[in-house]
Amino acid sequence: MGAYDVVIAGGGHNGLVAAAYLAGSGRRVLVLERQDHTGGLAISTRAFPGVDVRLSRYSYLVSLLPTKIVKDLGLDLELRRRRYASYTPVGDTGLLVDGGDEGRTEASFRTVTGGEADYLAWRDFYAMTARAAQALAPTLLEPLRPAAEVERLVGPQAWQDLFARPIGETVDERFADDTVRGVVLTDALIGTFADPATDLLANRCFLYHVIGDGTGEWNVPVGGMGAVSGALEAAARQAGAEIRTGAEVVGISPSGEVAFRTDTAEHTVTGGHVLVNLPPAVLDRVLGREPGTPEGAQLKVNMVLSRLPRLKDAGVDPRAAFSGTFHINETRDQLAAAHAQASRGEIPRLPPAEVYCHSLTDPSILGPELRGRAETMTLFGLHMPARLFRKDPDQAREEALRATFASMNQVLAEPIEDCLLRAPDGTPCVEAKSPVDLENEAGLPGGHIFHRDLSWPYADEGGWGVETEHERILLCGAGARRGGGVSGIPGHNAAMALMR
Asked: What is the radius of gyration, based on Cα positions, of the chain?
């Protein structure tokens, strides 16, 4: 197939971002993707036969994608804001964070916590994170700054509370109520197996969940996650990138030679540079060295409902509760108990999880016959590390799903199973994906959705955070520094490292 200026190994969303920028700058670019479609885990799927619903099967919300990338590439993409940030059941009431009614949020805090102290602490804490987000977000698209400079940018209080000491200490100091503490801490644990009381890995996870695009808002991609990747693929092709699917990269050499396999043969191409949108452990393998061993820690459950479940709290409309993040048994103490059980090799007895219903904000993902008759529900379960699913993946997945549904049913007024839509063949519309499933189906080592543990968004050695020990090989995927999540940031930064 010849020589290219840039060969990109992996056609996930970051690879497509890099391809669009580089092809748009006049470079000859080839993207090689193992699967029969682009987008990686940022895709939409009709998961249940005969059910016309486009589910965001793996990733599901967008926060980290910078507006600058959307504008630079002219993406035809709508990200829709959710009015309700979260709802957390507490007995027969619940904590509702209403982005459209501050007074209602304050009243909800008073009902749940018995006073105003935690509400005032909440406002102060998130005002601080907002200032940090505004300072940090622009730097994610620039060469890495040293730690001391980032400390000056965010200020001494934010540095101490978000960077220097465990986020669990910060939360315990600032908030008195266990439920409020848990709501804050969940952002430190999405896809991350860590103890926020001791492990700064939880801080890094928290940062990436609150600084996205300078606001930290988690928005709904209209049309599902497939709309994000579809817009990026269109931009890359329009810029002139060549994209080949069904092409698995099996070898990369430091000299820029890339070997890939199709159904019919093996091929070799050469790139002036090779951008790697693969997990670092996969890069190790294709370079012929011993791969690392990352570990993911989540249970993803996709559902289609015939109706929303009833709540114990009669004062809150289920459409409000489920259009934001609905927290399930995620108090600080419940999170700690689940982490301890998983650390012992046990599926948590009361798995912490959160759900939201994409279709409440964006009904376009439902087929015409299902609009008004069905809703989607996405569940993300915490503290479900890959080690729990290694011995018997199918049995462990079923056990984890049963435990998760039991946890959910504890906070609802009716079983979630009674609300599931049934496919034409009579089977309920529910599927669960463990880290081992992601490893086997999507090629993610350890099922780690961030490719490896998240890194701090700064480095004293500078650079773009995409460099490897080989001058012609750069990371452009989630495993790069400032990677993780659906952001396009590593793809942008790898392209900038070449273009500048």
From this structure: 22
Separation between Cα atoms, residue 64 and residue 57, nearest integer Å: 19
Residue 69 Cα to chain centre, angstroms: 18
Residue 309: enclosing H or E segment and its boundaries? none
DSSP H helical segments within 177-302, as ranges? 178-185, 201-210, 225-239, 280-286
Burial track 375-392 (b if 16+ CB lie within 10 A, e otherwise)? bbbbbbbbbbbbbbbeee
Q: Give the C-alpha separation, 300 to 295, whole Å.
A: 15
pTM strictly above 0.85: yes
Give the closest residue to 283 by CA, choosing from 455, 23, 463, 480.
480
* Calpha distance 342→328 (Å, rounded): 17
10-residue averages of pLDDT along the chain (500 residues): 92 98 98 96 96 95 96 97 97 97 98 97 98 97 98 98 98 98 98 98 97 95 97 98 98 97 95 97 95 95 98 97 98 98 98 98 97 97 98 98 98 98 98 98 95 96 96 97 95 96
Mapping DSSP to helix (H, G, I), strand (E, B) and coil, where does residue 486 land?
coil
Confidence at residue 1, expressed as pLDDT on a 0 to 100 scale: 59
Say whether 118 sits in a helix, a strand or coil. Answer: helix
Residue with tokens 């049913």: 409
CA 6 to chain centre: 27
- Give which of 498, 486, 475, 495 is closest to 220, Cα–Cα: 486
d(CA 434, CA 441): 10
Residue 2: predicted pLDDT: 85
Q: How far apart are CA 302 and CA 313, in angstroms?
A: 24
Look up residue 92 and give its two tokens. 């027969």
Token digits for 370?
A: 């299902």
Residue with tokens 């993707």: 33
The helix (H) or strand (E) run that includes residue 252 is strand 248-252
Report the pLDDT value the prediction gives residue 37, as an integer from 0 to 100. 96
Contact at 8 Å (CB) between 186 and 330?
yes
How many CB atoms neighbour CB 148 within 10 A? 11
